[in-house]
Amino acid sequence: MRTSVVVHGVVLLAGSTFLPIAVATEAGAAQGGDEALWLVGLFLASVGAPFFALSASAPLLQAWYARSGNARAQDPYFLYRASNLGSFAALIAYPLAIEPVFGLAEQTRLWSAGYALAAGAVAACALTVLGGAHSRGPVAVTPEVAGTAPSLARRLAWVGLSAVPSGLLVAVTAHVTTDVAAIPLMWVLPLALYLLTFVITFRPLATWPERPLAAVQVAGTAVVLGAAMIGRLPFAADLPLSLGLCFVAGLVAHRAVYRLRPAPSRLTEFYLCTSLGGMLGGLFAALIAPRVFSTVAEYPILLVAALACRPGALVAPRFAAGAALRRLSVSLAGAAGLALLARFAPEAAPSVAAAIMMTILLLSWRAPRAAFGRAALFCALVLAMPLLSAQDVENRRSFFGVHRIETDPQGRFRLLAHGTTLHGAMRIREDDGRPALGRPEPTTYYATGHAIADVLEVARNAYGPLPRVSVVGLGAGSLACQARPGEAWTFYEIDPEVVRIASDPTRFRFLSACAPTARIVQGDARLTLARATEPTRVLIVDAFSSDAIPMHLLTGEALALYRDRLDAQGVLALHVSNQHFDLRPALARAAAEQGLTLLQRIDAIDEPIERRYRMRAMVVIATRDPAITREAERLGWTRVAPDLTRRPWTDDYANVLEAFLDLMRLRLGGGLAAGH
């Protein structure tokens, strides 16, 4: 007991040396495009020690409580339920009450004070337990109380049952925030449901709805896998289904973990194994899967793995070489048959694959112990989804998400999409079926006459030819076809996969045909622009991932950086089209802090998007030049009056909830905002 107190005291003191917490700015930017590992190392070096100290306190406090002699100490696991309920409350409170009120510096000070209070509370608990143990004297521990050492199988069960819901949490979050809808704060919902599963399951219950939950798992997984083969589910069905399956899988797996809990004397070992499982599941979904799969295939794979968390599924039947060989032969024959079907009858392959999946699911429902015998075929089908799909789609995955290169149903345009956002559309065939040749026509948001293209016209009309143009965000390179001879263009792009796609003339010819000498700078624009030495005449910030715009590109410090990179006649424009935020009020307030006037323009599109893939954009110009203001107003731009009562967005403070509510008020008032 004394040893654990001393050791944990040293851990808490070591964590306090990193206070106040802050991200290590001297780390620089990720090198070699390996952003995921760079981020893991950055956070370990910046906040790893205090986070580890706090997370290690929870199981240790439970272990001390188990030895305290309290009447409830024989089952201290209720404290874990309370811990997760506190985490749930803090998660909900952060975006609703903390972030809108406090800046990062204030949050850091409050967090440091909270760390000190937590350390003091742990010290008080240690003194109480040590004092109680001293007054009681040595306590004889019977084998029943101490508990026997858990077997290797039980330890592995703790790890595996914890890994599946943890990995599924990461996979579902990636799926709903990119493939379903990039709604603000959407990441909160899967994590909140995940925490609630611990609150619900870590308690003694007379009855548990085992069969209803298993039925929901099987039916929901069948729908997800079938839809992945045949087509995408609509938003109204996909979102509740994904969140519901994540919640049910967590309930099933965490209830199984609770049932396998050891005696209190083995509590810390138990939590070590469950933490290891959670880490392994998260590492698989966050680091390994993006390197292995070209789509978010880990989501259906982990749904299948969640079926093996049902009671009885982890108890494998007696091994029989002949039976195993037969199952393997059937799996290989089925995979080969599907491959032939996809080759010679691509229209039928998705439906057949979906039917096979549902049949296997029903068999697994009737015989859960055979789940492992069928898992190989499941995974083979999931990984074969891109081949079995009837649609011509090429997926490119990076740290920033999945980029889809596909052809429209009429075969006239090649499209580049990321999540719910269309990043580019290039005509490949004319309406009469002939191949489209020559200089590509800029489409989507970048068509001639649209707001983004007219930013260039404002600058040209005010001061003549443009010596240099800089664009933050590359996409398919569509904007390059607004370039004119003699202009030097530079694109700043954070995603190396986007750079490869846009630079490949076999995919998109915007760059190669319209601006072959354009320079591409890969990296975060705030960092790469800060290193730029040559001033630019026009700077267009057009950076968004799916429907989310990086907030650090919209703060007062960011506007000051952009202004410093412009020449004396420079024009700054920001593309702020969004379905969920109205960013104009925040930008107008930040621009006022920098002495800039904000003007806006929203495109009006009458024809259907699918006709020529022209899309409405909301764009703002920030300037202090009267000539630019006059020319913009002549072309239909209007001023945005700043609300000086607002708190300006800075690198220390940004109120995402406020921008979300701004759009809600606009829509309720009958206003119209451009979106994707």
From TrEMBL:
Signal peptide: none annotated. The keyword Transmembrane applies. Keywords: Membrane, Polyamine biosynthesis, Transmembrane, Transmembrane helix. Gene3D superfamilies: Vaccinia Virus protein VP39. The chain crosses the membrane at residues 42-66, 78-98, 110-130, 156-176, 182-202, 214-233, 239-258, 270-293, 348-365, 372-390. It comes from the Bacteria. This is Spermidine synthase. It comes from Methylobacterium cerastii. The lineage of its organism: Bacteria, Pseudomonadati, Pseudomonadota, Alphaproteobacteria, Hyphomicrobiales.
